[in-house]
Amino acid sequence: MSPDQGPGDPRAVVGRAVENCVSCGACQGVCPLYQAERREELAARGKIRLLGGLLKGQATPDPALARVLSRCLLCGRCQANCPNTVAATDCQRAGREILATAGQVSLAKRLVVQGALASPSRLEALARAGRLGAGLALRLPGLAGLERLPAPAPRFFLNDAPHEVAGPQGAPRLGFFVGCVANYLRPELARRAVEILSRRYTVVIPPAQACCGLAAVAAGLTDTARDLARRNLAAFRDARVDLVFTACASCAHALAHEAPRLLGGELADQARDMAGRVREVGQILAEGRALTPAGAAGPVALHTPCHLGVGLSAGAAPAEVLTRAGVELAAWPGGNECCGGGGLFSLGEPELSRAVIAPRLAELAQGEARVLATSCSGCWLQWSRHTAPGTRVVHPLELLAP
Amino acid sequence: MDPAAKQAVRQAAGAENFADDRETRLIYGGADHHGREYLPEAVVRARDTAAICRVMAACQAHRVPVVARGAGSGLTGGGLPVAGGVILDLAGLNRILAINPADQTAVVEPGVVTAHLQEAVRREGLFYPPDPASVNFSTIGGNVAENAGGLKAVKYGVTRDYVLGIKAVLPDGRLFQTGTATIKSVVGYDLTRLLVGSEGTLAVMVEFTLRLLPLPEARATLSGLFPTLAGAAEAVRLVLASGIRPVALEFMDRQSIQAVEAYAQLGLPPAAAALVLVEVDGPGEVVDRQARELAGLLREAGGDPVEVAATPAEAERLWRARRAVGPSLFQLGPDKLNEDVAVPLGRLAEMVDRLQGIARARGVTVATFGHAGDGNLHVNVMHDHTDPSQQEAAREAVSDIFAHTLALGGTLSGEHGVGTAKLGFVGAEIHPVALELMQGIKRLFDPANILNPHKAIPGPEMLP
Predict the structure, then answer these.
(1) Are the C-beta atoms of residues B159 and B143 closer than 8 Å to each other?
(2) Does A53 touch chain B (CB under 8 A)?
(3) What one-character-per-residue DSSP string does B231-267 give?
(4) Residue B445 is inside which H or E element, if any?
(5) What is the ipTM of this complex?
(6) Crossing angle between the packed helical segments A88-101 and A10-20, to the nearest 10 degrees
(7) With bands split at pLDDT 50, 70 and 90, how would you rate the model's confidence at A115?
(8) How many Cα atoms within 13 Å fall on the side-chain side of residue B439?
(9) Residue of chain B with shortest Cα separation from A27
(10) Please, are residues B121 and B129 in contact by the beta-carbon 8 Å criterion?
């Protein structure tokens, strides 16, 4: 155990959830996986019972248990809606940590998280060799639609990014946390973010930043996640910024909610302070003057990522930014529902992931929108893989004039 | 279950719908109100009626207990596999088979979530009123098996009042149908009503024909805070005697108000002795007039302040306190014994008085809220179960509550059912001859006693 390890012994987190859960079933009513498949083991209640069995020695940390625990999107809805305020999502995450510590984490997840995301230089080398996609394809099931994602960019954003882009005189300093998808796959999104934000703020882009660590947290690989959190904290602390923004709700959620949990000891205060400064870019733009649209897009289907709506309680921000800019939003009642992406979940559980997104795709097919906007890179990957050909999937920033 | 029984049930269900691994058994297990854990020996996911018929026949042949359940969200242990055996999971049978605006009926499978049905019929301008607190996750099958009530019972009745017909499977595997799709039907004994509230002890219900109403045009909500309990009781009396039939007439006592305030900080004054919440529905102009009239009655009884919601958002704000009360009660103690006794409307004020006396005499915190309009009170005895003296006092308080309820001509459960939690008290309410008839009915439907055994009514062995 390292001296700066954060609070939250996973067994204690699970134990509290087991103690407080009264098995009422309210989590079933909000769980995207349960709604799709109606299987008891998919909602938090079933998993909390199973983890209770693990603590009592009625179950063992084996592949069967790991398989059940892997079937969770970590969307946060069960925890946000629990009448008895059970930390149900934290419990799932802690359960995965217990399993990973016992050696129960799939080779594929370990490869992606520790072999690639946590190690930019290796990822870069793989991409240079053109082997990134092939390497993933060899090892991961459920890759339908992956060919529709862009290849890794020839130059990653952080390779060429300036360390600072000055805004107006005396403007607040905003740190830009780029995130893996924008850095490796979508540098044009990162550039758009810098262009728009630097008109009002000084944008600081610390080159030493790393992956946000959410995939590591989700895989139960807590030591890797902690290492990433430590690197990011150091990078942004040294940049002396007023706020930190991302163009990804999941990265923002990880920096705001996971990092302070992971970092304790002498880093605890710094981690909490940094966490309080984190925003998804939509939250910052919603507070400023109206922006102008990037041209006529036709009606836009706006999707609210779970980590924006549930995680950051900021689900209304993108709609506010786009509406004020004059972008026409399509009516879409399912727009606040989960897309079934869940990071690596969609690769490990392709059928479940597909079952969650299927009703959303049916709704979209009936509507007029040919552009779908979402503020999360994980959701962007999921929508890009699954939407009908001809649908453009973007971050809301890309609908705004630079 | 011996290997032959398991093999027979597996074959009847189809191997892909049968599980007896340790993980699945743990997931479907549960604890009763004493904390005793029960695990099923196997779980069957029902795919269709034919499979249910085969599974039941196999279970009866091998004397395997069967607990049929939907969401497993009941409050009295109805879904617990207390005798082991099979849990028959009906949650996957969740199709709305038909909505017939001409008949004003819907035909549904047991796993349909009640709120999903309400939403689907609303789109047709129709209304399915039963509204238990679990409406967003509990299923029609479970609602019928427990005869679920809810907030709207004062005007619209309970689940029983909306079940016109049922298709069900007997333990021997025979499928049968009771009732019709008509509002009136007097041919034969009313087996439909017998099955409603039978807690899964008589047959496995696989399809329901439900009665629907036209969707009311408008709603209005009002609330009043009362400095005394007597004032609130007077308000309830005045509303019920006014000639206006409210949809909901809800009540919260001082302990409930304080718990909600500690939990949700809604700005409720801690000095208030009671909160009364009223909702009316109907044509817009009538609803407005009725809301004003009822607000006058609440003020006349001493309500201060009395608020009438002008918008749906304001109505939601008034309802927030009532909705928060369930989870907020843990502010008063780590454990609760949650009873849902009901008394005749005229005895309600007396019952609330007696509850306060019980709390004082037993030295426990009792928070009471609930459906004043139908006499159904949620009485929560808050305590810490790790302290033996508190646990004992809480149990004694519950016995007192039951005794006083029966003395006032009430019932031990208005809407939660008996399950395992109240089984030991049933004999105190049900006439011995009636109980004998019930036991005979159970034998007639389920001679091998495999359907949800040890629930709903005590067997002869449990009686003195």
Answers:
(1) yes
(2) yes
(3) HHHHHHHHHHHSS---SEEEEEEHHHHHHHHHHH---
(4) helix B432-445
(5) 0.93
(6) 140
(7) confident
(8) 16
(9) B137
(10) no
